[in-house]
Amino acid sequence: MRISRRGFLVAGASLPLAGFAGRVMGQTSSGSSGKGGNLTIGLSSYPPNLQPWVNAGSAAGTMAALIHRGLLSFSADGQIQGELAESWERDGDTGWVFHLRQAKFQNGSPVRAEDIKWNLEQVADAKSTAYMRSQFQGVERIETPDERTVRLIMKQPTVAVPDWLATYFMPMVAPGTLSRDSFAVGAGPFKLKKLERGVSIDLEAFEGFYKPGMPKFETVRVVAYPDENLRVAALQSGDVDLIDYVPWAAMSQIEQDKNLRLDTTLGPYMYLTFNGRTGPFADARVRRAVALAIKRDDIVQSAFFGRGAPLEGLPLQEGTPYFDPARAHGWRRDVDAAKALLAEAGLSGGFSCTLLSTAQYGMHKNTAEVVQQNLADLNIVVNLHMPDWATRVALGNRGQYEFAVNGTAMESTDPDNLSSVLDDTAAPSFIRSTGITVPGLSTLLHQGRAEFDTEKRRAIYAKVEELVLEQAPMVGLAWRSQGYAMKANLQGFTNIPGPLSFYSATTLENASLA
Fold this sequence. Notes:
This protein is an alpha+beta fold.
């Protein structure tokens, strides 16, 4: 029995994609010689935005990983690998050289060095809204000595350039195909065929994809299941082959089903962001008091059914050179210290505020409820505002909140990616706090980015960690186990380990149903 979905989809689940639906609906499949099979993905949300270079959440990232490719990507084991660039190397102190492979965009035009230069210039433009604009404003110049060579010269030594280019925030799109009322043409394994706004997106294999024999699926249908119970039910009934954001309450049940397979990794995390323009959260003492009041084990149990761990500092994973066990517990719960900080700030009697979250994801809702309960110990009355995910993203991007629950992951294993949640000079994004400037923090982040020596980098990021623990521009809450569930016969798909889980859809180029 197939599940009826129309009744529960939220009408506002996507931001407008004006003009695009009609354009792709008219496309016809050119056939997929040598390919076979159809994959159906149950996605936790309809993407709020399908434009390249932006951060619109993991659903949009999944679509980007299917449709687009950048110069580099992350492999199934988490290593950086070539994509449109078949090789790359450092060039002196500030340069990086990328050697392009023979590849085509989905409109048939070849991928040339000039196209890569154009993409990078769009991201770095002063008026750009690209998520990684601030990073690529560090480019001094881009040279294209021939059609298959791109030389990127940075203003200073920059260790993280390959990591940036491996993220799905840096797809390379065909010049001339980007406008406000259409979707840019990519170079990935699947191309858009049609969409039904708020409901589903249909893709077909791109026969001009540069990897021989890939993709293996002829079509991919992505269906939005915002209700996580219906998402699991769709997998169990066979309506879909793969789901993201497996609800933690269902993980044990899936593990016991011989027809299904669960693939989890510990890496994504939950945290709080703040609006420092006005109100109590403009004061670092209040933010730190909040950090010290949270009972993080309650979040792990309530939101993740024990499949996670407390996050009492910055999201630096144990086992990396930058992890320090003392600083990792810098925000361990201490209600007395929290009350003393509020008294210093003149708020010993507490105050009322609104916490932005979303009810669309149980982890966000449950995390918000624990924060609400814990802050009552400080006489802070927290009202919850939990709209749908697309609205939550829009409010966060506009800075229209007092403080907010968010969930994300480091964009790579390099500590430079702390910048994504900490750099107050970066373009506005729901992933970062708004209106908070921590003196010296951005400078330290840029110093860490410019240093190639590991020991010197460790010293820099230790200072970053100390400053963040004191000023609390964001507050870590909990690590979470991030899971995909699938039919047992789905082969070739991998949940990329640790913080790279959200890039896992890139491995679907090699997936098939046995």
